[in-house]
Amino acid sequence: MTPPDAKADLHRYLRDAREALLWKLDGLSEYDIRRPVTPTGTNLLGLVKHLAGVEFGYFGPTFGRPHDESMPWLDSDTDPNADMWATADESREQIVALYHRAWAHADATIEALPLDAIGTVPWWPAGRNRLTLHRILVHVTAESHRHAGHADIVRETIDGTAGLLRDIDNLPYAEASRWAEHRARVQQAAEQASDG
Q1: Which helix (H) or strand (E) holds 184?
Q2: Over the range 31-48, which residues count as b (16 or more CB within 10 Å of their CB) and which as e?
Q3: How confident is the model at residue 28 (pLDDT cuts 50, 70, 90)?
Q4: Rounded to 10 degrees, what is the CA torsion of 58, 25, 145, 47?
Q5: Which are the contacts of 165, defined by CB distance < 8 A and separation ≥ 6?
Q6: How far is Cα 82 from Cα 74, in angstroms, rounded to an integer?
Q7: How confident is the model at residue 2 (pLDDT cuts 50, 70, 90)?
Q8: Is 130 helix (H, G, I), strand (E, B) or coil?
Q9: Residue 139 pLDDT greater than 90, yes or no
Q10: CA-CA-CA-CA torsion for 13, 39, 89, 157, nearest 10 degrees?
Q11: Contact 178, 162 (CB under 8 A)
Q12: Is this structure's pTM higher than 0.85?
């Protein structure tokens, strides 16, 4: 049996999260990919924009691998949530293309460095900001999957589309009637528990 390649495994999980997030935009209008569906403003295109900045940051300056991208929403004098939504002037195509460029930049860093390469996260406090590529890869993969989970809920709220990936829904039921029955069971259990 061939021993697992830890870097390849981690990289694959990061790629899966990227794809899961992007397919949540498919088939939706400009309004639907931008509109806030939670009290904190969570929206699909904002999640993509945020993760583009995350990948450029953690796999760029952290490892002395600068990029030429202009991301003014990350400047210190902007709204701290400016990376979590798209302005009317920022198109879907621009943000998705930015995310793809972030992937390419991150992938080049991941491929060029060993897992034990040391980087310094400029925006983390001194004493906690020197980390290995392995640690950064785990961190960014976890953050990407977390936001892909947010995107799952946002997309289901918008139009009922649910599932893990474009071609693999990873859901136990296909029929809407089965989901309605399931939801009714969950609702009944919640009501019974609150009565007791």
Answers
A1: helix 176-195
A2: ebbbbebeeeebbbbbbb
A3: very high
A4: 50
A5: 16, 19, 20, 23
A6: 7
A7: low
A8: strand
A9: yes
A10: 60
A11: no
A12: yes
